Predict the 3D structure of the following.
Amino acid sequence: MRNILLTLSLTLILASPAFAGLNVVATLPWIGSLAKEIGKDKVSVTTLVKPSQDPHYLDAKPSMILAGRKADIIMYNGLDLEIGYLPLVIEQSKNPRIMTSMPGNFDCSRFVKVLEKHAIVDRGMGDAHPLGNPHYHFSPTNILHVAEGMTNALAGMDKANADYYRANFRSFSERFKEKQKQWKSVNLKGKKFVAYHKLYEYLAEEFGFKLVGYVEAKPGIPPSAGHIEALIESMKASRPDAIITSDFFPKHESESISAKTGVKVITLPGDVGNMKGTDDYFSFMDKILAALR
Amino acid sequence: MRTSIFTALLLAAVTVPLSALAADNLDDRVNRLDTELGRQSETIREQQKTIEELKEHLKEQNTDKLPTTEENAGKSTGLFGGSLMTNPYISLVLDAKGYASNLKNRDLESRGVPGFTTEGRGLRNGFNVDAAELFIFAPVDPYFNLYVNVPVTDSGATLEEAYFVTTSLPEGLQVKGGRFKSNTSRLNSQHPHAWDFADIALPYKAFLGSEGSGGENGVQLTWLPQMPVYTLLGVEAFQGDNPLIFGSDPNWGPHAFSAFAKTSIDTSDNSTLYAGPWAMFGSTNSTGILPDTGLRGDSSLYGMEAVWKWKEGLQGVTLQGEYLYLVQNGDLTATDPAGAFVSVDHLRRHQDGAYLQALYRYGRWRICARYDRLELFDNTFKIADVQQSFGGKPWRATGSLEFIPTEFSMIRAQFTSDHSARDGRVNDEGILQFVFTIGAHPAHTF
């Protein structure tokens, strides 16, 4: 029996198609899409979280562990966003290449300017992330820094193709800067929005609009009737331009607030690929800014 | 600077008559120096302003460049559960229960599952605190992670688990060693507060005890080969201290072993199927099977588990079932209640059990149902080749409703109709359970 198992597994190992390039595992869709921009056909990218999935609540599925087992490098958002499953995926992958402090363990948040680092945090504040707001992928400036860090990491691991990755980054960064000019021309200064979750702080910071309230009472805690009433009262005074949300979040609260205040609801893509026509970072950002304009 | 002094002197010399100069010489000098001082401090102010401006500029440039890997390299990523707050990562879980039954405490304590175990209910009418469980975790160095779990109960603190896990072995191999709960099956390795119900499924209680095999001293080797489908293979060797199926051996150790295989595929983006067989075998020295008896012999416990889970955000369905089959042979020594020897006879057991459970979660609420029963296909319990009769087949039906405000708190109301005592007396019990976690973020094991 054991022999049969061994033979079977050996056959399967040998039969699996040999891919010469780097095996990149990305936790979130935007990370995977960035890795593809830099690595192109020299990397094979597996993304653990599907664009339709809320990255907060996933389990460490065996398929994720298996992907980790095969990874040369695992790239993740960090700042505790994947805290529920990533530590398990990494340990149970039994893959020394991606353990913490190895070159194959790539924390994208190391390259960004983090907002809302809390000096004092307790869980009475809800699902607050003590290391700072983890949703920095809404900030193009940060994304360019991450892409650069990613390029260096890939070039360091795969020295033979280092120039290839650097050239890809240069062309990506040129396109990116061109796009940034377009994005910066969108004037959102002075606009005010109410957000469902603390998801858009980086967007507000970068494009100069204000977040004047949240549908959630505290991050990750669904709102009470009292909280919603208070929010509606405050919205009468602050007169926001819209309520912004993503489709991971329940719709009915935002819609009922909208019905009572006349403030429209805008659904933004939560990640690359989360809505139609957001297949890469450029179209993702285009879609967001077009919706907020 | 010098030119300005010179100019000042020159101007003074030209404009001021010599006679006046002689008379006002001292006054004039004081005035001149005053003016000079004023000019100099003006210059200093300007220079300071320039310095400030340059500093400001430099700062802006730095923030533009920020943050680089090097500057952030030392910061904790929070990857292992506790962020900056805790190192090592520590959490404490409180598991408290309110219990109500139609049976008296005395009856609950003596209520075993005849033909399987003499272990009682373990809960008393009224308030119960099962445990405050302390979890400590940290990487030891680049090669090992360490986990410790110390439940503190009213009888003191016990070392439930304390083990290392290797992180740098090649080829998908991993060694775990120390004291830990066997990973043969999912219910067995879960901690009581993480079970989907307030108590363990009946086959586990009947064959292993109310906490499964429990923490055992031993070592485990697992292998995750690089295959297209998730396949985990593992073997374990244990001291064999579980008092029901193994029991301490006066001569040898380790004397309990296990092997398991798990395989899993995603049936869609949001759903996963997970299944695998397992087996546990070893020598037995147990006094927990029948009252006033001791068994010395050998036991093999075989199991098969299957889980299907669909989860989308905070909504999900889980279907889970397990089948267990026990083969046990040995010498059963009977004593009278005073402990005096009565007889030795051969005992032969072939018994099985299974449970099936379904969970449905919507937002912060979850409803769960479970059915478990013993002796589905085999009820062989022969003493000296004579089949023993204990009464009707043991079974239980359980339903529960959970309120889960956050990942750190859970309140469960559970009702069970328990027909496992085989004497026609049903235990209709209600449990109100509170589980609270503080400290490091709990892991979402599949």
Helices of chain B lie at 2-15, 18-65, 69-72, 105-109, 186-189, 202-207.
